[in-house]
Specification:
alpha+beta, 5-stranded antiparallel sheet, 14 strands, 40% strand
Amino acid sequence: MTRATGRRLVLGALAAVCCTLVGSQSVAGPLSTTAFALNDGFGPAAGAWRGTVLITGAAFGDTITAEVDWAAFGTGGFQQYLNSQSIAQVDPTGPFEVTYVYQISAVTAASPGIDTLTVGIDAGDGRGGVLAPSFVPTGAANEKSPISGGDNTTSMAWFFNGAELAVGDVSSLLVFTSPFVPEFDFIQANSGLAGPFISPLVASPSDRVYLVPEPAALALAIGCAAALAGRRRR
């Protein structure tokens, strides 16, 4: 077993534990329960890549307690999600890309305010998406958007400096794209010096290319399956 494979197995096991622990504390929002998430059989929700995590911590008087919903979408899935939530925005994803989406969906403690959210990505994992870390507004009255963001080599990052999230706020949909399918990696949010003691796990690009069957190939596969089924019945 290679080191990379061993790491994925460990992260997968940790994700299962985190989902179990968080499930009793978090209230899932629409992003974390969407039926349009990419399902390749490896995600934590019956094979789908979606979920919610709880981030909590305290340091030197600073505090953070917040829920982050997340999902990864295959081609066309993010637009279906936007439409289902009546969010009048256009999916920025390019063809044959996975859209990685995160949202700070509930803030119950934040002093001096949530100023950063980062999602881990390994140096060897896939990049090259059309959309660098950006955001899609939802139109919510209590929504705040990041001031900046970028690929920090070891993470994708969004910064709210000057627009920190306080109790009762939510973030815009924090988005980037990649032509590579998900695996688990760490997510972190900070409020001043406060951050999670152990970072939860969410979807992040792997080193495996996202392949979407062409319509003709998909139709051929369906036809072959039907023919085989008919032959078995005869």
